[in-house]
C-alpha cells in the first residue's frame, strides 16, 4: 500500500502568524492551533503545519510551493500587498514569479496553464 500525502511542515519563527497568512493566501482554514503548532487545510488538499524554530531562515528553500492563479499579475499584486516580497533565486527569464512569504520562504506564482 502506498502512503498518502497528509501535510507539509513549515518551520517558522512565528508559526501562528505565518499559518494565518498562508491560510488567507490559499483560502484554507485553521484546523488546529496550539503553542507548538498551527495547522491549516483546504477541502480536498493536503494541509500545511507550522511549527516553531529558534533560528531565522538563511538559505534558499529545498522545497517550495507553486501557486496557480487564474490571473498571475493580479495574484502577485495581492500577495505583495499581503506582505510577500519579490526574490531572485537565479530564475532568469521564466514564466513564473518567485516571491517570499513574510518569513522569507520562497514560493512561485505560475502563469495560467492550459488544462
3D structure, described in words:
The chain has 115 residues and is of the alpha/beta class. The protein is 20% helix and 30% strand. A four-stranded mixed beta sheet has the order 1-4-3-2, with helices on one face. A four-stranded mixed beta sheet has the order 5-8-7-6, with helices on one face.
Distance between termini? 30 Å
Number of domains: 2
Number of discrete helical segments: 2
- What's the level 1 CATH class of the largest domain? Alpha Beta
Helix content: 10-25%
Class inferred from helices and paired strands: alpha/beta
Can you write the helix and strand succession as a string?
Answer: EHEEEEHEEE
Number of strands: 8
**Rg for CA atoms:** 15 Å
- Largest sheet: number of strands, sense, barrel closure: 4 strands, mixed
CATH superfamily of the largest domain: 2,3-Dihydroxybiphenyl 1,2-Dioxygenase, domain 1
